[in-house]
Amino acid sequence: MQPGDIIEILPVCLLDKNRALVSELRFLAKKLGLDFGWHYLLDLTWIISQLDKVENLSIMDVGAGVGMMQWYLAEHGAQVISVDRASRSDIPIRFRKRYCIKAKSKDQLLNSPLDTVIHNLQRLPGLFGKIKYLWRELLGVITFPEAPGQVVTYDREALRLDEIPSNSLDAVVAVSALEHNPPDKLQSVVIELMRTLKPGGKLLATLGAAPDQDWFHEPSKGWNYTEETLKRIFQLAPDTPSNYSQYDELFIQLKNCRELRYNLAKFYFASGDTGMPWGKWDPQYQIVGVCKVKRD
Ligand SMILES: C[S@@+](CC[C@H](N)C(=O)[O-])C[C@H]1O[C@@H](n2cnc3c(N)ncnc32)[C@H](O)[C@@H]1O
Question: Where in the chain are the domains?
């Protein structure tokens, strides 16, 4: 066993154990106008609680999208490298007011504020959505002070991160992102992420968990992995601590979790193919956190 490495299906008691952090995440999400996926509070809480320190550290958020983790890290003074294969050229203006956001290279410059507003307005359905967006932007631009950290966006496939030197990062985090890679490809991604870490640095990732067989969840377009698959992909020792033996009882607790159930984001109620069809609470899988520490 390698000290620090773990595989942990995320128990819902994490929320009670980290109440101050959960409140901070909810407050920040509200302020930024960000919605959470149904399990993201668990993912974020687990990853953040595994980081010993954030301030002044170089931390890569892989598969960051425009999600919460990078903003939380910048809020706490980290230098964030935000990687995603999807473009973030239209990050809302209110985020750019609060955080020092830079795009890595000329081919992926952030669009101008005016282009961004026009693009985002065209994308939003209905007059109400457009007014809400404009109101959020206006409020953000008027009221947001600047956060201490910085976010540099790399619109890249994480399989090849040539511009990021080996042994250069203090931590790598991935919130519900790596499961969007098929099992046969994911190991190469993990090897590339480990390359960028300093010795002693942690890779902290949350993914979908499967009890006895890897399977693909169509609504979320994500894989769910068994303990065996995770050990192979992350090259973890056979005796790495894991709570997969408690899969069934942890799943019952998740299904009975009122806090997650009664706080589903609005978008779940607007469609039948989001994984919680028309807002009906029906978790099909659990979330597992993997921590792998880089050795010398
Ligand atoms: C479900 S979203 C989660 C986004 C974000 N982490 C959050 O908390 O909101 C998954 C993201 O991971 C990105 N992603 C998955 N695999 C990736 C890879 N190999 N390289 C770059 N981005 C990846 C996808 O493009 C997508 O934006």
Answer: 6-85+156-293
Side-chain half-sphere exposure of 136, counting CA atoms within 13 A: 20
Q: For residue range 183-204, what is the model confidence (pLDDT) as tens digits?
A: 889 999 999 999 999 999 999 9
Please tell me whether the overall predicted TM-score, pTM, comes out greater than 0.85 for this model. Answer: yes
- Mean of the per-residue pLDDT values for the chain? 94
pLDDT tens-digit series, residues 134-170: 888 888 788 777 889 999 999 999 999 999 999 999 9
47: tokens are 């990853």
> For 216, phi and psi rounded to 5 degrees?
-105, 125
Mutate to test the pocket of ligand 1, among 60, 85, 154, 223 (most ligand atoms within 8 A of CB): 85
* Residues β-bridged to residue 205: 174, 290
Instruction: Give the CATH fold of the 6-85+156-293 domain.
Output: Rossmann fold (3.40.50)
Q: Is 153 in the pocket of ligand 1 (CB under 6 A)?
A: no
Spatial CB neighbours of 252, under 8 Å, sequence gap ≥ 6: none
Question: Token match 């005796």: residue?
Answer: 239
